[in-house]
Write a structure and sequence with these properties.
This is Class I SAM-dependent methyltransferase. By secondary structure, the protein is α/β, with parallel strands linked by helices. The chain has a single domain, classed as 3-Layer(aba) Sandwich (Rossmann fold). 45% of the residues lie in helices and 19% in strands. The protein is built from 13 helices and seven strands. The protein has a seven-stranded mixed beta sheet with strand order 3-2-1-4-5-7-6, with helices on both faces. Helix 4 links the parallel strand 1 and strand 2. Helix 3 packs across helix 4. The longest helix has 13 residues.
């Protein structure tokens, strides 16, 4: 059995993934990701959201940030299988926001909005996961890294060991995966994590200059295919 296989089977429970993130579980990116989500929801006022669930909520920062931006009637629930991440999320608990250590699908509750932010690329049977997520809420929001791009292919880049991503997507295959699992795509937009997320923009400063220049000259979608650094945020039902 390969080291990579061993890592992916137990990394989220035994602390390996926490170490991979430098002990932060990407908490520093939460404010930006929550902002993207709120922007997407603001574009669709017809999507009435009062109960919000996040599957694979990590350290809880996204839900905590959303709570400060949504009406006081909104309720938030986060599910996480990592004891380390769950312990970090407890700092954000209150009477409107709770965090549960365990399987979201073992809980029978149904929500207005179910989110999986940078999650299903980590799941071995991602299609079963997506079908279950679709059934758990009226609306769904997914954030999916677009790891397949020309630059990465030419360099032999592998997101298994560096990021724990065992499924690699383009924009088109991410959208098709949702359609295949009974979702109806309502809207989506690209997010430039390489330039905007705190844990990445310092490392990609030079390449980001090229990205911005090419976006103006060609298009964001083309730059995502060529250089990478992007994800897609999707609203579905």
């Amino acid at each position: 059995m390969s080291q990579a296989t061993d890592f992916h089977r137990g990394a989220y429970a035994d602390g390996s993934y926490l170490d991979l993130t430098g002990g932060t579980w990407h908490l520093q990116d939460s404010q930006m990701k929550a902002g993207w989500i709120m922007k997407l929801l603001a574009s669709h006022p017809e999507a009435k959201v009062n109960t919000v669930c996040e599957i694979g909520c990590g350290a809880g920062g996204i839900l905590a940030s959303m709570q400060t931006r949504m009406p006081e009637t909104a309720q938030f629930t986060g599910y996480e299988i990592s004891p380390q991440a769950h312990e970090m999320s407890r700092q954000f608990e209150n009477d409107r926001c709770q965090f549960i250590l365990g399987d979201a699908f073992a809980d029978q509750r149904h929500y207005d909005l179910v989110m999986a932010i940078d999650v299903f690329e980590h799941i071995e049977d991602c299609f079963s996961f997506l079908r279950q997520t679709h059934e758990k809420g009226r609306y769904q929001i997914y954030h999916v890294p677009l790891d397949v791009h020309a630059s990465g292919i030419l360099r032999g880049k592998n997101a298994w060991d560096s990021s724990g991503h065992i499924h690699l997507f383009t924009l088109e295959t991410a959208l098709k995966s949702l359609e295949f699992t009974n979702h109806r795509i309502i809207d989506w937009f690209l997010t430039n994590g390489a330039a905007e997320l705190p844990n990445r923009k310092a490392r990609t400063k030079v390449l980001n200059t090229v990205r911005y220049a090419m976006q103006k000259a060609v298009s964001e979608r083309f730059v995502a295919r060529l250089l990478g650094g992007y994800s897609v945020l999707i609203l579905a039902e």
